[in-house]
């Protein structure tokens, strides 16, 4: 049996597999390999010919069902024809095949450039009111599993993809993507030209769309729904926030932990405002040793301060930051009294609380490959992002420092104000999905809390 190191490429796996007497012996290793979602091909030792073969998992999955007894093979019916329409507000109509739930749904269409992590994207509450179009053409191959959920629900309007994997091939998989979406009443479409839609969104900006499987609705009716629907100026965080406070204690699983100085943990109490918080923010705080109390978006500043936290985190969340003045008021009442950390929506609310303004971007940033310049140390972080709004740095008062910029468009990606013990990032240091380059931001928050305790 192969134990360590985990093979990271086909080249390293192939000789190992060749040395195998029994092809089944490779299974746990291959499973581990697939768990990291790195590669969809592997080398296998053919029982029949005795030769090493390099085959795709998709071909392999049926032939070696014993290796993949936990896989769900979902064969696409080749005779399925387009049964759904995506009607965009610009009048374009995109025929597609449906999966997941059926019906009619309206939302804003945004494109996401992440190569992996569709389950974390589906459960990111910040996508409430939006259709996520994945630019990676092949989706569904790793299915879904109970551990990759970023919230307890899918809040997005729907999923738009080019090609739906005909089967799942990951040992962690417990359900196919289609079944998962159907159970959560979320619509999906595939066999649609996602590149053409992405080019349109890049050129014209985010567009409202209506997705429908209902033949009774005419194209004109769907277009009218799209043109009447608004996302700007709407409070979406009240629909995704928790209803009552709760304590969070789960850390990042030891197998996945990448913060190595575990003995350096501090025992700070952090109150985290849930504007649509992703579980991995909470896991990262717990991994750094924090005791975390999560509170609803409407939780008053005075109640928070009574809890005597060492720090307050303002979370990510969906929609227009200018549509939630009550949250900005809460932020205003807290800053300066305890160290604070704002992430994404939390960063935008901090920007407003400091006197700045937010604006809607043309098509936003959604993906796991956005370069950010850390202006304090000169480093570039490849980051996970998901936002349509940004803080206008020119609107900020003196004393507020822009600490990070998005290197694609130079937009503001981070703020700090030393006098107020405040830091914020427009992107996602918790990633999930995405690279971990920005995780040290949590360490910085610990330092901020430590310094203010002295
Ligand atoms: N991920 C987030 O917090 C999103 C922030 C904000 N709702 C935006 O779209 O810009």
TrEMBL record:
It catalyses: L-glutamine + H2O = L-glutamate + NH4(+). InterPro entries: CarbamoylP_synth_ssu, CarbamoylP_synth_ssu_N, CarbP_synth_ssu_N_sf, Class_I_gatase-like, CPSase_GATase1, GATASE. SMART domains: CPSase_sm_chain (SM01097). Belongs to the CarA family. The lineage of its organism: Eukaryota, Viridiplantae, Streptophyta, Embryophyta, Tracheophyta. GO terms for molecular function: ATP binding; carbamoyl-phosphate synthase (glutamine-hydrolyzing) activity. It is an enzyme of class 6 (ligase). It holds the Pfam family GATase. GO terms for biological process: 'de novo' pyrimidine nucleobase biosynthetic process; glutamine metabolic process; L-arginine biosynthetic process; pyrimidine nucleotide biosynthetic process. Keywords: Amino-acid biosynthesis, Arginine biosynthesis, ATP-binding, Glutamine amidotransferase, Ligase, Nucleotide-binding, Pyrimidine biosynthesis. Pathway: Amino-acid biosynthesis; L-arginine biosynthesis; carbamoyl phosphate from bicarbonate: step 1/1; Pyrimidine metabolism; UMP biosynthesis via de novo pathway; (S)-dihydroorotate from bicarbonate: step 1/3. Heterodimer composed of 2 chains; the small (or glutamine) chain promotes the hydrolysis of glutamine to ammonia, which is used by the large (or ammonia) chain to synthesize carbamoyl phosphate. Small subunit of the arginine-specific carbamoyl phosphate synthase (CPSase). CPSase catalyzes the formation of carbamoyl phosphate from the ammonia moiety of glutamine, carbonate, and phosphate donated by ATP, the first step of the arginine biosynthetic pathway. The small subunit (glutamine amidotransferase) binds and cleaves glutamine to supply the large subunit with the substrate ammonia. This is Carbamoyl phosphate synthase small chain, chloroplastic. Residues 82-212 form the Carbamoyl-phosphate synthase small subunit N-terminal domain. NCBIfam families: CPSaseIIsmall (TIGR01368), PRK12838.1 (NF009475). Its EC number is 6.3.5.5. One of its GO terms (cellular component) is carbamoyl-phosphate synthase complex.
């Amino acid at each position: 049996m192969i134990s360590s190191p985990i093979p990271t490429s086909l080249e390293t796996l192939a000789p190992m597999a060749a040395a195998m007497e029994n092809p089944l012996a490779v299974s746990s290793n291959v499973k581990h390999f697939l768990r990291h979602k790195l590669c969809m091909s592997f080398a296998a030792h053919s029982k029949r010919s005795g030769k090493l073969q390099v085959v795709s998992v998709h071909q392999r999955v049926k032939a070696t069902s014993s290796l993949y007894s936990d896989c769900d093979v979902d064969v696409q019916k080749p005779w399925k024809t387009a049964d759904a329409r995506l009607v965009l507000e610009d009048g374009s109509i995109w025929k597609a095949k449906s999966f997941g739930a059926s019906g009619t749904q309206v939302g804003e269409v945004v494109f996401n450039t992440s190569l992996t992590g569709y389950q974390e994207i589906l459960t990111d509450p910040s996508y409430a009111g939006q259709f996520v179009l994945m630019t990676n053409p092949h989706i569904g191959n790793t299915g879904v599993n109970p551990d990759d959920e970023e919230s307890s629900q899918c809040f997005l309007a729907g999923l738009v993809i080019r090609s739906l994997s005909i089967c799942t091939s990951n040992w962690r998989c417990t359900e196919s993507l289609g079944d998962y979406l159907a159970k959560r009443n979320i619509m999906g479409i595939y066999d649609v030209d996602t590149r053409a839609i992405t080019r349109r969104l890049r050129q014209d900006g985010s567009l409202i769309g209506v997705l429908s499987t209902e033949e009774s609705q005419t194209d004109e009716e769907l277009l009218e729904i799209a043109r009447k629907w608004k996302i700007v100026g709407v409070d979406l965080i009240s629909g995704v926030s928790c209803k009552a406070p709760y304590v969070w204690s789960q850390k990042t699983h030891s197998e996945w932990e990448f913060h190595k100085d575990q003995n350096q943990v501090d025992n700070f109490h952090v109150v985290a405002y849930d504007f649509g918080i992703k579980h991995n923010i909470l896991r990262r705080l717990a991994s750094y040793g924090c005791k975390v109390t999560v509170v609803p978006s409407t939780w008053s500043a005075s109640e928070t301060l009574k809890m005597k936290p060492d720090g307050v985190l303002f979370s990510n969340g969906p929609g227009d930051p200018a549509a939630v003045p009550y949250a900005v008021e809460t932020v205003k009442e807290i800053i300066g009294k305890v160290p604070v950390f704002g992430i994404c929506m939390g960063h935008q609310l901090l920007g407003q609380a400091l006197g700045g303004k937010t604006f809607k971007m043309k098509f936003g940033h959604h993906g796991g490959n956005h370069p950010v310049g850390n202006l304090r140390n000169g480093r570039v972080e490849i980051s996970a992002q998901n936002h349509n709004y940004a803080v206008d740095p020119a609107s900020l008062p003196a004393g507020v420092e822009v600490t990070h910029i998005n290197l694609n468009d130079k937009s503001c990606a981070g703020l700090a104000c030393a006098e107020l013990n405040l830091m914020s990032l427009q992107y996602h240091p918790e990633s999930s999905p995405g690279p971990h380059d920005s995780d040290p931001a949590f360490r910085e928050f610990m330092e901020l809390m430590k310094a203010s305790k002295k």
